[in-house]
Write a sequence for this structure.
């Protein structure tokens, strides 16, 4: 009897400007077996985009029905359109043995924790608020007031760190990726994840 492990949902989250997208992309470049959590949206499909690759595209009515039926792990409205994470897609990938990564803002991560507490929550932290400020400024897209607003929001989000299972400091991208990879390996070796499957081995040997 072969032991087949289910996949795990990993939630990578942290303040705006901390480098979530950069770390996630570098992680996927190193590990092609990981699945990216595809979001659902009510905004119109754009030229070059593909259904089920870029997003799952739904009408406003269909999306709101999914909210009512608790079929989304999290959702938010942005510039008049809904965005969210479909439960069915995540559960389907996990059942197939794939690890799914969801890169999301802190408030969204807290919604996921409420709806899918068995996920593994990783908080990506800046080395310091000064470094976070430098990263936001280096984008060259924010006014001084917006930078200060983002830093205040980051302080508030760092205080929510206790809701997470792990904290990874993004001092260097490669170092952060190595730590995330270590978390993935560690989670797959956790006794509570594999115990029930190995007990099945004992039942087979005794029958």
């Amino acid at each position: 009897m072969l032991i087949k492990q289910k996949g795990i949902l990993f939630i990578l989250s942290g303040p705006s400007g901390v480098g979530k997208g950069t770390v996630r992309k570098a992680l996927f470049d190193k590990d092609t077996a990981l699945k990216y959590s595809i979001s659902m949206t009510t905004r119109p499909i754009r030229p070059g985009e593909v259904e089920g690759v870029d997003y799952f595209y739904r009408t406003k009515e269909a999306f709101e029905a999914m909210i009512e039926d608790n079929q989304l792990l999290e959702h938010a409205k942005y510039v008049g359109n809904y965005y969210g994470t479909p439960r069915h897609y995540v559960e389907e990938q996990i059942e197939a043995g794939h690890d799914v990564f969801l890169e999301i803002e802190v408030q969204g991560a807290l919604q996921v924790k409420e709806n899918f507490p068995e996920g593994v929550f990783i908080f990506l932290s800046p080395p310091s608020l000064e470094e976070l400020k430098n990263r936001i400024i280096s984008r060259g897209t924010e006014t001084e007031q917006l930078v200060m607003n983002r830093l205040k929001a980051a302080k508030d989000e760092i205080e929510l760190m206790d809701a997470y299972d792990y904290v990874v400091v993004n001092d260097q991208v490669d170092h952060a990726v190595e730590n995330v990879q270590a978390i993935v390996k560690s989670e797959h070796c956790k006794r509570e994840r594999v115990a029930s499957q190995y007990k099945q081995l004992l039942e087979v040997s005794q029958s």
